[in-house]
Amino acid sequence: MSRRILVLGAALATLAAVFVGAGAAAPADPFVGAWVGVESPVGDGSTDYFVTGAPGKDGVRAYHGWEDWASFCGGGPLTTWGTSRSVGDTIYTTITSARCANGSPGAFPLPVTVSAFATGDGHINAGGVIFSRIGSR
Predict the structure, then answer these.
(1) Strand partners of residue 126
(2) Which helix (H) or strand (E) holds 73?
(3) How far apart are CA 111 and CA 37, in angstroms?
(4) Domain ranges in the chain?
(5) Contact criterion met (CB below 8 Å) for 53 and 61
(6) Using CA atoms, how far apart are residues 8 and 61, in angstroms rounded to an integer?
(7) 3-class DSSP assignment, residue 70
(8) Domain at 3-133: CATH code
(9) Is-contact 114 95, C-beta < 8 A?
(10) How far apart are CA 2 and CA 65, in angstroms?
(11) What is the pTM of this model?
(12) 91: buried, middle or exposed (CB in 10 Å: 19+, 13-18, 0-12)?
């Protein structure tokens, strides 16, 4: 296992502990937190992780993502950065930077904006990939 994967895993676990904590309620904001989803039955079967922060005064949120086997890279890990904005139950994430661990430049140019929506039951649906908060029950 690479050092990057270990560092990312530790960072996500720490962030999840902050958001979930022992007996703490989930954040009222349906998008804040650390999330995990598996691209199945849609997508390439990879496991996707992302962290979205609370909106700033301007409504912009920080976004950071990681995928263990990205088609974008022709396979292999992908790390992404960008910003998000939410409107009601929908969040729009603009990925401004991406790094393929295999050195690939990626399948298409950035930036790209993707959308997802809060399902109302504590999950996020991004094109059929269902994300759950890390540490949620």
Answers:
(1) 129
(2) none
(3) 22
(4) 3-133
(5) yes
(6) 20
(7) coil
(8) 2.40.128
(9) yes
(10) 17
(11) 0.80
(12) buried
Q: How far apart are CA 127 and CA 77, in angstroms?
A: 20
Q: How far is CA 16 from the centre of its chain?
A: 13
Give the residue among 90, 115, 121 at the shortest CA–CA distance from 26. Answer: 121
Token code pair at residue 47: 């496991």
Cα gap 90→12, rounded to integer Å: 23
120 CB-contact burial (10 Å; exposed 0-12 / middle 13-18 / buried 19+) = exposed
Task: Name the token pair of 73.
Answer: 């890279």
Number of Cβ within a 10 Å radius of residue 109? 7
Residue with tokens 């396979």: 75
Token pair in block for residue 75: 């396979």
For 4-27, write each residue's pLDDT tens digit: 444 344 444 434 433 443 344 556
pLDDT in tens, 43-61: 999 999 999 999 999 999 9
